[in-house]
Amino acid sequence: MALRDEMRNNGDVLFKYRSYLPIIILLVGLIVFIQSKLNYEQAEWNEYDNIGCVIVSIIGLLVRMITIGYSSNNTSGRNTSVGQIAESINTTGIYALCRHPLYLGNFLMWLGIAMFTMNFWFIMAFILLFYLYYERIMYAEESFLLETFGSYYLDYSQHIPAFIPDFSHWLPPANKFSWIKVIRQEKAGILNLSIVVFLFKSIEGYILFGIWYKLNSYWFWLLIFSLVWYLIIKLIQKNTTLLAFDR
């Protein structure tokens, strides 16, 4: 099998299971985090460092929200069951800055979590793993888009970088921003981020101080708010049509 075909096949498989990469990162990151805290029990608990990590993750979440909010209908999105879907391609807005803004958002979200370990080598390993993993996914996606849209996508890809944004190419979004799409698709991302942050903080508090993290902290209330928000949106989706289509 030619190398490009192998990369295409690998990318198609990884695309279907791309939701599992964060779980691997989280489990390994927790092990590294716990080990570092056990080795340095008297280490200063720097709240500003933690807030900085969360800010990086929030920036990634915002990138995802902007991308989804201006996205066209009938594209892959969170689909993982039937492979690639694309009836059109975005070339304006955030897609005028880079070709894969959703993956840029994913990277920043999980980079913030990796930074919680405060372990340089784990952070570097995360960046390398993300690169190797998503390089193949992006290759498979672009192969599909080239087959579907031909020279139109080829011309677009020759001017717009794949991952690192180039703000000199900015074009106003052609689509209208949809809060419904953002609310519908990112409720789980908000909740998962809150759970992971609170988990790290709770483990850190128990190791360093012998108690689980305070339940009246702002990290705790962020988790509660995210959980309530998630349940409300799920109930609305299940029992009404308010989030079934854009109004």
Walk me through what this model shows.
- This protein is mostly helical.
- It has a single domain, classed as Up-down Bundle (Four Helix Bundle (Hemerythrin (Met), subunit A)).
- Helix content is 66%, strand content 0%.
- It contains eight helices and no strands.
- Helix 4 packs antiparallel against helix 5.
- The longest helix has 31 residues.
- The protein is globular and about 60 Å long.
- About 3% of the residues have low confidence.
Estimate the mean pLDDT confidence.
82
Structural class: mainly alpha
**Number of continuous helical runs:** 8
CATH class: Mainly Alpha
The largest sheet, given as strand count, sense and whether it forms a barrel, is: none
Query: What is the annotated CATH architecture?
Result: Up-down Bundle
Q: Kindly, what is the distance between the CA atoms of the first and last residues, rounded to a whole number of angstroms?
A: 48 Å
Query: How many individual domains?
Result: 1
How would you describe the shape? globular
Number of strands: 0
The sequence of SSEs as H and E is HHHHHHHH
Strand content: under 5%
Question: What is the radius of gyration?
Answer: 20 Å
- CATH topology, by name, is Four Helix Bundle (Hemerythrin (Met), subunit A)
* Low-confidence blocks of residues: 76-82
Helix residue percentage: 55-70%
Layout of strands and helices, then pairs:
Layout: H1 3-16, H2 21-39, H3 47-69, H4 101-115, H5 120-149, H6 151-159, H7 179-209, H8 218-239
